[in-house]
Task: inverse folding
């Protein structure tokens, strides 16, 4: 009869769970392996696309746009007047940004973006849209109770601040230019871009200077 070593079994179990990816990741990997095996996709091409979205087409692009708007008044004016033309100056025009409108947060106005019909989103600037952005609950409640929705993200907007909700569509998509955090006058454009979050460019976050509380 085979000896049963419970301690050893636990060790193996923990090892497997620490090394194996999550169930969704396993499914994706299995699908990729099958497609590569059948010659339908190139593994190197998939890696290149992942790197592109993670490093270039992700929120980093939008963050650079915001940081430049903070530090370059002339660019800021052009961005607010014609978002598509302004981001084209940086080489960022692409799919889903052909009709881009930038809206600016101020001490008096806070902007929130939602797509009530589906999930239209300027992903060439902000990367892949977050799961919550595509949920029916967010899409409906953001219009009915924007202040309450934003509060659920840990952000409280004062009653004296007007909240404007912008409905993104296939023809017109939005980029929120958040307020520049106080105490960042000494930071250059690259350092400022590091402070900008994806959620702040949708309107569910307010930025703070490094080390400052919410």
Result:
């Amino acid at each position: 009869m085979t000896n049963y070593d419970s301690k050893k079994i636990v060790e193996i179990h923990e090892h497997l769970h620490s090394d194996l990816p999550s169930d969704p990741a396993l499914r994706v990997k299995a699908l990729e392996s099958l497609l590569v095996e059948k010659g339908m996709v190139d593994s190197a091409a998939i890696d290149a696309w992942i790197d592109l979205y993670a490093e270039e087409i992700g929120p980093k692009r939008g963050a650079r746009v915001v940081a430049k708007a903070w530090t370059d008044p002339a660019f800021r004016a052009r961005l607010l007047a014609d978002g598509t033309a302004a981001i084209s100056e940086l080489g960022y025009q692409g799919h889903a940004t052909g009709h881009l409108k930038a809206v600016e947060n101020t001490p008096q106005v806070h902007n929130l973006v939602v797509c009530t019909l589906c999930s239209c989103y300027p992903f060439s600037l902000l990367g892949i849209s977050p799961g919550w952005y595509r949920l029916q609950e967010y899409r409906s409640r953001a219009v009915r109770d924007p202040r309450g929705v934003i509060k659920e993200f840990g952000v409280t907007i004062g009653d004296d601040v007007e909240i404007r909700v912008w409905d993104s569509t296939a023809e017109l998509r939005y980029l929120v230019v958040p307020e520049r955090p106080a105490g960042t006058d000494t930071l250059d454009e690259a350092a400022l871009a590091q402070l900008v979050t994806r959620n702040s460019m949708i309107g569910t976050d307010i930025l703070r200077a490094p080390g400052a509380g919410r």
